[in-house]
Amino acid sequence: MRALRLTAWGEPPTQTEVEQPVPHGAEVLVRVEAAGLCHSDLHVIDAAPGALPYRLPFTLGHEVAGRALALGPDADGVAVGDRVVLYGPWGCGACDRCAAGRDNYCDRRDTLDWHGAGLGRDGGMAECVLVPSARHLVPIGDLPADQAAPLSDAGLTSYHAVAGLRHALEEGTTTVVIGVGGLGHLAVQILRATTPSRVLAVDVREEALALADRSGADFGTLMQADTAVVLRKRSGGTGADAVLDFVGTTQTLELAAGVLRPGGEVAVVGSGGGRLTVSKPGVLPPGFRLSLPFWGTRSELAEVVALAQSGAIHVETEQFPLSAAPEAIGRLRRGRVRGRAVLVP
Ligand code: NAD
Ligand code: ZN
Ligand code: ZN
What we know:
This protein is of the alpha/beta class. The protein is 26% helix and 25% strand. The strands form four sheets. Strands 3, 5, 6, 9, 10, 17 and 18 form a seven-stranded mixed beta sheet that branches. A six-stranded parallel beta sheet has the order 13-12-11-14-15-16, sandwiched between helices. Strands 2-1-4 form a three-stranded antiparallel beta sheet, with no helix packed on it. β1 (2-6) and β2 form a beta hairpin. α4 crosses α5 (182-194) and α7 packs parallel to α8. Bound molecules: nicotinamide-adenine-dinucleotide (NAD) and zinc ion (2 copies).
């Protein structure tokens, strides 16, 4: 079968023919219908040797939807032909976090040389993907594959980040979303669907602000020197109750801290490598809270799938055949993707 494999750090992935896996034990072989291309794939491709705890080579693709094609003799809870989305964080399976469906916070994460599908283990940018157990699958019914695949990360991560803030997002509150790409445009929709908070969006691209508008944001503005002032004014003068930063550079972290209201919370999702200095006394508002949400839980994936099935959220996708992966990667690098790029094998 064809697969898009990372064979050397810092080099573009290569399209190769690999043996189609055969499921053993509790494994499930899934025929891939769509695999989303995440900005994290660029971080992985560009990583310096030794920076990530993954062994090469492996097939990329951590946002995957498809159909169960073959089952190992001990596979349980799925039937051949079932349409599914992959729950991508594959923890150790033995710790209490994994037992509770919170593989994203597996206690043994640092001792594993993989963090899940397409992140050290063979993922879904291929004709088929081997899943260790049906507990990593969530049914999608007849949801189109290009809609379902991005839910497993862009949707799930955004949903998990919003869930962490929801307690603070009552009527009359303001949430700022920085970076309205694959994750950010779903975060705007999830905020809209699950909280009464006013949503203000920030991006460096006009096209992304148009997407924020279609996604239900109340206001969008370009990232500029006075953006904190503009956002503060739009919040009614108080500042934001919460900020979701899907970029994570020093510039965006400083904007997040600068626009936050006392007692507010910043959730940093983007892996931009920026820094924010914590000091007391200092410039951070009193009561400042910060979180670093990572991916999401298995039950949250089922919830975000249900939201999509109800029509409350819709993923904007640009579809590419798997053979056009280099073009899709190039477009994502240049900030030319609207919503999510999805590869179809
Ligand atoms: P994306 O490229 O689709 O979207 C990023 C958006 O941010 C784009 O619209 C871009 O124009 C905008 N942007 C870039 N620089 C900006 C700036 N300085 N100010 C404002 N906007 C800016 O990326 P994505 O796939 O949505 O991923 C977003 C980030 O989240 C990436 O860093 C990715 O690695 C990370 N990520 C984290 C998790 C997690 O679990 N924490 C999961 C998935 C992705
Ligand atoms: Zn991702
Ligand atoms: Zn674990």
